[in-house]
Amino acid sequence: MKEYIERATVLNLLEKINPVDFGSMFDYEAHGAVQECLREISYGVEDISAADVAEVVRCKDCVWRGREECAMFYRCDCGEQHTWETDNDFCSYGARMDKEDEHEAG
């Protein structure tokens, strides 16, 4: 499974690296080389194209879970209501519970 990270997080971590920590205290050549290396890495991170991903809303976090608006909800001919989702399932209609006001919850 692929893992995705925030570009800003990586750049912030790179900024926290102190070139003086590499080489002896007065080895200015080493400090300069490390600083240049960090700068090149930062440019590389900035140039990496973004992955085409979308946030997934798991059923356990979805505002629609257990409601008729849920894509996993169905009404049986016997009149009973059913869902077939588990906590880790997801669909393209998911809406996070903590962001309910951004969606039209019927």
Choose one word for the global shape: rod-shaped
Major sheet: size, sense and barrel closure?
A: 2 strands, antiparallel
Distance between the termini: 36 Å
The averaged pLDDT comes out at: 78
Across the major sheet, the strand order is: 1-2
Structural class: mainly alpha
Report strand %.
5-15%
- Compute the number of helices: 2
| Computed CA radius of gyration, to the nearest angstrom | 24 Å
Provide the helix percentage: 25-40%
Number of strands: 2
What does this structure look like?
This protein has 2 helices and 2 strands. The chain has 106 residues and is mostly helical.
Topology:
Layout: H1 7-16, H2 28-47, E1 73-75, E2 81-83
Antiparallel strand pairs: 1-2
What would the keywords be for this entry?
mainly alpha, 2 helices, two-stranded antiparallel ribbon, 106 residues, single chain, rod-shaped, 2 strands
Overview in brief:
The chain has helices spanning 7-16, 28-47, and strands at 73-75, 81-83. It is 28% helix and 6% strand. It is rod-shaped.
